[in-house]
Amino acid sequence: MMPYSPSGLFPSGRPPRPTYREPHPVSGAAIAAGATGTTAWLVIFGLLGGTFTGYAWWTLIAGALAWLVSLVLVRYGDRGVATGIAIVTAGGWSIAAAAVAVRWWTSGDWPLW
């Protein structure tokens, strides 16, 4: 004979289990805000470099600063904005790395020195 276990359809007399909720839930609007701001940030810093080498270094520096802001936001602020920042920064670094690789491949000289 199996012990009786309630299905949950009818109250069993026990108090319900506690529900834990995220204190700062991630929303699509927050991700979009972080992504938009970071895109503008990377474009502005990328335009500061007058040469290809300057573009690559400014993009690297701007991405590092953006990731520091993202880490602070993960701990103390809005995790959705931090996610948008991290995603766009990774994309911006990927574009810069691909451009450096193509320049290196075509010229045969390392472009960042």
Structure notes:
It is a single chain. With 113 residues, the protein is mainly α. It has one domain (28-107). The protein contains three helices and no strands. Helix 1 runs antiparallel to helix 2 (52-76) and helix 2 (52-76) runs antiparallel to helix 3 (79-107). The mean pLDDT is 90.
How would you describe the shape? elongated
Q: Which band does the percent of strand residues land in?
A: under 5%
SSE class: mainly alpha
Mean pLDDT, to the nearest integer, reads: 90
Uncertain residue segments: none
What percent of the residues sit in helical stretches (DSSP H or I)?
A: 55-70%
Rg result? 24 Å
Main pleated-sheet profile: none
How far apart lie the N and C ends? 79 Å
Count the beta strands.
0
Element-level helix/strand string: HHH
Q: Can you count the helices?
A: 3
- Quickly count the domains: 1
Comma- or semicolon-separated keywords:
113 residues; mainly alpha; 3 helices; 0% strand; membrane; transmembrane
Q: Layout of SSEs?
A:
Layout (H helix, E strand, L loop, with lengths): L27 H21 L3 H25 L2 H29 L6
Helix pairs in contact: 1-2, 1-3, 2-3
Gist?
The protein is built from three helices and no strands. The protein is mainly α.
